[in-house]
Amino acid sequence: MIKLWIPLALAGVLGACSDTSGVDPDAIPGPELLAVRTALDSAFLHDTTLDRAFTGDSGLYALMSTLVFFFIDRASRIGQGTDTTRVVGIEFDIDATQNGTRVISNFTTLLAWKGYDSTTSTVDSVLFLLGSGRAPVNDSLRPRFTLDSASTGTGFVIHEARNSAVTKWWSRGGHLRTTASQYGTAHGTASFSVARGSLSGAFTINAKFVPDSSTAVTSALDFGNGARAIKVKIRGTLPSPAPMR
Q: 16: which of 61, 82, 138, 220 is 20 to 30 A away, CA to CA?
């Protein structure tokens, strides 16, 4: 996985980009979103078995969550039998310059979850998928992933117990397909902006337990009628990363 450094200074425009419009039936209650983020943080921030370009305090997940979670306040509800899955898509459109080098990166993230328990503030299942490019995407899910490799993606299934213990499974097969996306007016600055809209597609994931592959899980979801989504656009010149200490 390539190391993509996005300056946290861009977060300075967050207030200008936030959407505080009226009540929306797809709005996510604050405690529920916090529970989803806590499960993801527990799975990725301190993991030592996965690619360090993705995990850790300065990995891709940490940078994405810092920039994106502020805007994820809506998620579609998709019924599956007696269960309801919440799902939101995020598309990244990056074309910027850093240290004289042009940085171009387009990738898609899909976040889905079900089984939120307001009593324990836990989420039974969280799915986190990454694919290269923006819609249309047709990526095979694998246990390795690079943002600039077409038709490749990766994904995780996370289970959080009622005592907040987290276990995870990493993709060994399946696919992430998106057919179309559409967005409204972007808000922000010329360097960093966010637009809200929808993303259509479907996924299946076959995953094995981390770290020893001792168990396997599968999951699938069709969001062909469209799911809530945001598009993050980054342009201009990015500052150099701060020196490591």
A: 61
